[in-house]
Design a protein that fits this description.
By secondary structure, the protein is α/β, with parallel strands linked by helices. The chain is 24% helix and 21% strand. The two termini are 23 Å apart.
Length: 229
């Protein structure tokens, strides 16, 4: 495990074939958000069991294929906050945990904290969520290829008619991300700059776990019979 406390729309462009574009033309830093207290969950959501693993580890494993995706990234930062001491022992060594002391300020402030930790040489920032349990490495790789083909555009998942995470922002948007301070995340940036968004249809992104009931429903949908705590 890595150590360290402060960081060791209708106007959207439709998804299109990216051909043979290589991700080597971009330098993407990844940021996973896992800082919240998850009051609605009634427990430490990041450690709830999914496929026999803590949710955080399941999502990282699913998204990176046991860290393999990190070879295509310049870094992978994980922002923790509430219950960080309990979560840190479960963080794999292929990501770098950063603890946000003001995590109570919400998702927007957490993103602002995380973007300031991004590698200074990064050209883009991939923002992901620890509770999006169905996102796969293949889907993120598709987004990275679209990013390489459209490096000036925001690349965002589209599901249920909305734009959201996972999302890749070019560095030109980093200053806006660093000014977020509410609990609404970066969605207002996606809305404001929707004409510059390449939307990737990603139904899996709709599966985020906020309550014990949603986790039970997820297990049932996957044919699992597991305890949620």
């Amino acid at each position: 495990m890595s150590t360290g406390s402060q960081c060791a729309s209708s106007h959207s462009t439709s998804s299109q074939n990216t051909g043979s574009h290589s991700t080597s033309s971009i330098n993407v830093a990844a940021l996973m958000l896992a800082a919240g207290q998850s009051k609605r969950f009634n427990g430490i959501k990041q450690l709830a069991k999914v496929n026999g693993q803590p949710m955080l580890l399941h999502t990282l494993t699913q998204l990176t294929e046991h860290g393999d995706l990190t070879r295509e990234l310049c870094e992978f930062n994980l922002v923790l906050g509430a219950n960080a001491a309990h979560i840190l022992p479960h963080v794999p060594d292929y990501v770098s945990p950063c603890i946000f002391p003001q995590w109570q300020q919400g998702m927007g402030a957490t993103i602002a904290f995380g973007v300031q930790k991004a590698n200074s040489e990064s050209s883009h920032l991939l923002v992901t969520l620890a509770d999006q349990v169905a996102i796969t490495r293949e889907q993120v790789t598709t987004m990275l290829h679209h990013c390489a083909a459209n490096p000036e555009n925001i690349i965002a998942a589209r599901y249920k008619g909305i734009l959201g995470a996972p999302v890749i922002f070019p560095r030109t948007y980093f200053s806006l991300l660093s000014e977020l301070d509410a609990d609404t995340g970066a969605r207002k940036i996606l809305q404001q700059y929707s004409a510059s968004v390449v939307a990737i249809d990603l139904p899996n992104a709709q599966f985020d776990i906020d309550t014990q009931l949603e986790l039970q429903q997820w297990h049932q949908s996957m044919g699992q019979d597991q305890k949620t705590k």
